[in-house]
Design a protein that fits this description.
single chain, nine-stranded mixed β-sheet, rod-shaped, binds flavin-adenine dinucleotide, transmembrane helix, D-amino_acid_oxidase_CS, EC 1.4.3.3, transmembrane, peroxisome
């Protein structure tokens, strides 16, 4: 049965079989958090110690509830006692001869001459006080056992039974003590397990995808949404994602269905975020740095000053002198922007996810419903994978091929205004691009295309003829008319799974990732709130 979608904007369906996610078992959690180590050994022995003391406590009742031989206490001091044919001056000595369960009595003579027959739970006063015989057929009175009991202390000096006189009509107390303790253990297990879980009422969030969009969203959620546990599930991690192929330049691309003001806000937030990193000690680790250069045009563009001009640094028109370097071009923009060494940046983001307690799982997700009920919320950042995962036919690949070359003398970026040819210097190599092949799924580099890219770039920067090619790379841009940032509620058989879709960043995902991740985090936050305050008319 398919999960029902409570969202009007997406026609296609996810085929859900309603099965649990099988791979999220204990072993995998150990794989990611580390196996049996010193901490676990310490915790094991602490628990073992506690369990041993609990165990002793449970079995202690066997010894503490011992019932020794006993008899009803006479109303005065015993002078002499007789049990069958044995006689003694001390009642305690005779008492040791009694065995539990026997029905015999002890005949005793008290200091005042009264003669009593003492049984376990009753005592009889003999009217005839003339002689102390064991058998007596005269007149007698049955008197209640109101003075307590005398116990055989030869083996056990004390027990719970002797201390509280849990014999005769109070014997049933002994029978219920053990079940009572076990009932207390059961009750404690239920109540305290519940109470200890209450403060850890975490919302389990699965983020699908470990490209720049998935990882940055996971980091944002972990920073901004309290009380969540985050698991990034992806079939590929760095260095095997599209994001790893990206040149990583912060120059926004226009999406027809995403409003410019939204795009500008995402770009500004991304620029500010990466600027802070670039100016920090983290810069090298995160692979983020400032880079200056030119964007050049063969004809005057309709927008001489693009919408993002006031976000990048020092935006200006190129001077005549600068343009002389590019005789084929008539117009140019000079500015300083940021560049991400994407593989380093993805590693850095993965580290942030792990530091915040998140898990990274290498698995392919076949359908979103599969994550129910292991997770409370799913964030779909699967890029091109959403074609199948979200059944979205509006997303398609636009193939891009780039070369990584060794040309350390190239320090300025050069980008043809069409965005097709570019030279982007980075920390360890220069990226030369590129191609835009719509609907092409081929991930193998094409030698002919590489030669073409190289010659186009050499035309812009002739010194590149001396460059040494290190690598050819191919990536499939997840292109869609607009970035999909949207909540959806999957439902099946009374169960629900809130999903936040966050994909379709096409040619400019690096440029806007942080801003759109913040937006996705706001949507996740709304889902978390809806889960915490459940209402029948949830507005998810
Ligand atoms: C050649 C080239 C150059 C580029 N240069 C730039 C640039 O300079 N500046 C810029 O801003 N942008 C650039 N881009 C665009 C940028 O690379 C993308 O916009 C961005 O990488 C998209 O990120 P993503 O996380 O959505 O996708 P991806 O990086 O493709 O990540 C998707 C993730 O989802 C996972 N996944 C998919 N399906 C499933 C599934 N069913 N189960 C589990 N996991 C799944 C994948 O394994 C992957 O980890 C360039 C792209 C290319 C190809």
């Amino acid at each position: 049965m398919e999960p029902r979608r409570e969202d009007q904007n997406l026609a296609p369906r996810v085929s859900g079989k309603g099965c649990n996610i099988k791979f999220l078992n204990l072993e995998l959690i150990f794989d990611h958090m580390g196996h049996f180590g010193r901490l676990q050994i310490l915790l094991y022995f602490m628990c073992a110690y506690q369990n041993v003391s609990c165990g002793i406590h449970y079995v202690s009742t066997i010894f503490m509830l011992i019932t020794p031989a006993y008899t009803c206490k006479p109303p005065g001091e015993v002078k002499r006692a007789v049990f069958q044919n044995v006689s003694s001056w001390r009642l305690e000595e005779i008492l040791t001869l009694l065995s539990p369960g026997q029905k015999d009595h002890i005949a005793v003579e008290l200091q005042d001459g009264e003669i009593w027959e003492l049984s376990r739970c009753s005592r009889i006063w003999r009217e005839n006080m003339s002689h102390l015989d064991y058998e007596y057929s005269g007149y007698k009175h049955n008197i209640p056992c109101s003075d307590g009991y005398v116990y055989d202390q030869s083996k056990w000096e004390n027990s719970v039974v002797t201390r509280w006189d849990l014999v005769c009509d109070r014997k049933w107390y002994v029978d219920v003590i053990q079940p009572f303790i076990m009932f207390g253990v059961l009750l404690g297990a239920i109540i305290f397990a519940y109470l200890s879980d209450r403060p850890m009422d975490t919302v389990r969030i699965a983020v699908i995808g470990a490209g720049v969009i998935g990882l940055s969203t996971a980091v944002c959620i972990s920073k901004l949404v309290p009380g969540c546990s985050i698991t990034v599930i992806s079939d590929k991690f760095t260095p095997d994602t599209t994001s790893d192929v990206a040149a990583g330049m912060l120059i926004p691309h226009i999406y027809p269905d995403t409003p410019i003001h939204t795009l500008k806000q995402w770009f500004r937030e991304t620029f500010d975020h990466l600027s802070t990193i670039a100016c920090s000690a983290e810069a090298a680790d995160a692979g983020v740095h400032l880079v200056s250069g030119w964007q050049i045009f063969r004809s005057i563009p309709t927008e001489e000053v693009p919408f993002w001009a006031d976000v990048v640094l020092g935006f200006r028109k190129m001077t005549e002198a600068e343009l002389k370097k590019f005789p084929q071009h008539v117009f140019g923009q000079a500015f300083t922007t940021l560049k991400c060494e994407t593989s380093a940046y993805l590693r850095w983001l993965e580290k942030r996810v792990k530091e915040s307690g998140g898990l990274l799982l290498t698995r392919r997700v076949e359908n979103l419903w599969q994550l129910q009920p292991s997770f409370d919320i799913v964030v779909n950042c699967s890029g091109l994978g959403s074609q199948q995962l979200a059944g979205d036919s509006t997303i398609s690949p636009v193939r891009g091929q780039v070369l990584q070359v060794q040309a350390p003398w190239v320090k300025h970026f050069i980008r043809d205004g069409s965005g097709l040819t570019y030279i982007y210097p980075g920390a360890s190599h220069v990226t030369l691009g590129g191609t835009r092949q719509k609907g092409d799924w081929n991930l193998s580099p094409d030698a002919e295309i590489s030669r073409h890219i190289f010659s186009r770039c050499c035309a812009l920067e002739p010194s590149l003829h001396r460059a040494f090619i290190i690598k050819e790379k191919v990536g499939l841009r997840p292109v869609r008319p607009g970035v999909r940032l949207q909540k959806e509620l999957l439902a099946q058989g009374g169960r629900r799974l809130p999903v936040v879709h966050h994909y379709g960043h096409g040619s400019g995902g690096i440029s806007v990732h942080w801003g759109s991740a913040l937006e996705a985090t706001r949507l996740v936050s709304e889902c978390v709130q809806a889960l915490r305050i459940p209402s029948p008319t949830s507005k998810l």
